[in-house]
Amino acid sequence: MRLDLHTHTTASDGVLSPSQLVELAKVVSLDALAITDHDTVAGLSEATSAGQDHSIQIIPGIEVSCAVSGIACHILGYFIDYQSSTLSAYTAKAILAREDRMKEMLVRLAKQNILVEMEDVVKEAGPERSSLGRPHLARALVSRNHATSIGDAFDRLIGDQHSAHVAIRLLEASEAIELIHKAGGIAVWAHPRLEVLERLLPELVASGLRGLEVYRPKSSPEHVRKVRASAAKMNLLVTGGSDWHGPGLGAELGQFYVTDDDISQFLDEGQISG
Ligand code: AMP
Ligand code: FE
Ligand code: FE
Ligand code: ZN
């Protein structure tokens, strides 16, 4: 069984709609897909029915933007009840906060004489988007000839280190984990950085974190070994996913996958049969 446990759709900053993503997953021979859009569950209903149509198992997920000890981190929630009212209360707030944050980023860019309108960003995000993110802004910067590519926009203008970047700090990681639990899900730390892994892990585990995203297309074997060792030490589940946002942005969908053997405990906990 081939699984990809980290993907994005047009509900957030991905390029394909939920049903297009599921159809592509079928074409590239994946058996199961977790859809983990940033701070929204808006794509999950469409994805679930497309999954039924194409015999692909869809694991409902979300990637929650949060911070722990002042450091930004992303917590993945898996097997969530995406109709949970607690979750919708959060996503409604997060979607508005992301719009305000985008406006603030546009103000900061304008101070550098880089003019982009909110309308441009919304247009790039498309009619299906629920949460706005920096990739939408990056696309608008490219359209307006302020950047030569998405990568260039992040490198020179809107990456974490730049003054135009406004961080999203809606929740503490402990609150994000609690939110995922209230929606019946399992909380997993997405793409943990080695520099902060050991330092932040005890606090996250104390808050109820259940797993670490170990397998990623860009991670070196050494990175994988270290994160897997931390997971073993802290008695955590391991997961893996491509963090796929669209074609031509790195490894293509289906090139990277984990098997049910790699993540058997995670699947057991989520009660998915291999
Ligand atoms: P946001 O949550 O709005 O701050 O946007 C974060 C998203 O931007 C990530 O999930 C990636 O999709 C994308 N991203 C972050 N850094 C880069 C980069 N250097 N190049 C391209 N995309 C990036
Ligand atoms: Fe993203
Ligand atoms: Fe992420
Ligand atoms: Zn992601």
Report what the structure shows.
This protein is α/β, with parallel strands linked by helices and 274 residues long. It has ten helices and nine strands. Helix 1 (18-27) packs parallel to helix 2 (44-54). The longest helix has 26 residues, at 85-110. The mean pLDDT is 96.
Q: How much is the radius of gyration in Å?
A: 18 Å
What ions, cofactors and ligands are bound?
A: adenosine monophosphate, fe (iii) ion, zinc ion
Mean pLDDT across all amino acids: 96
Describe the biggest sheet? 9 strands, mixed
Distance between the termini: 7 Å
- Class derived from helix and strand content: alpha/beta
Number of helices in the DSSP assignment: 10
The proportion of residues in beta strands is 15-25%
SSE string: EHEHEEHHHHEHEHEHEEH
Identify low-pLDDT runs: none
What shape does the CA trace take? globular
Descriptive terms for the model:
alpha/beta, 9-stranded mixed beta sheet, binds fe (iii) ion, binds adenosine monophosphate, 10 helices, 274 residues, 9 strands, binds zinc ion
In brief:
With 274 residues, this protein is α/β, with parallel strands linked by helices. The protein has ten helices and nine strands.
Q: What is the topology?
A:
Layout (H helix, E strand, L loop, with lengths): L1 E6 L10 H10 L4 E4 L8 H11 L2 E12 L2 E8 L6 H26 L7 H8 L8 H10 L6 H9 L12 E2 H10 L3 E4 L4 H13 L4 E5 L5 H13 L3 E4 L17 E2 L4 H6 L5
Parallel strand pairs: 1-2, 2-3, 3-5, 6-7, 7-8
Antiparallel strand pairs: 1-9, 3-4, 4-6
Helix pairs in contact: 1-2, 4-5, 5-6
One fe (iii) ion binds next to loops.
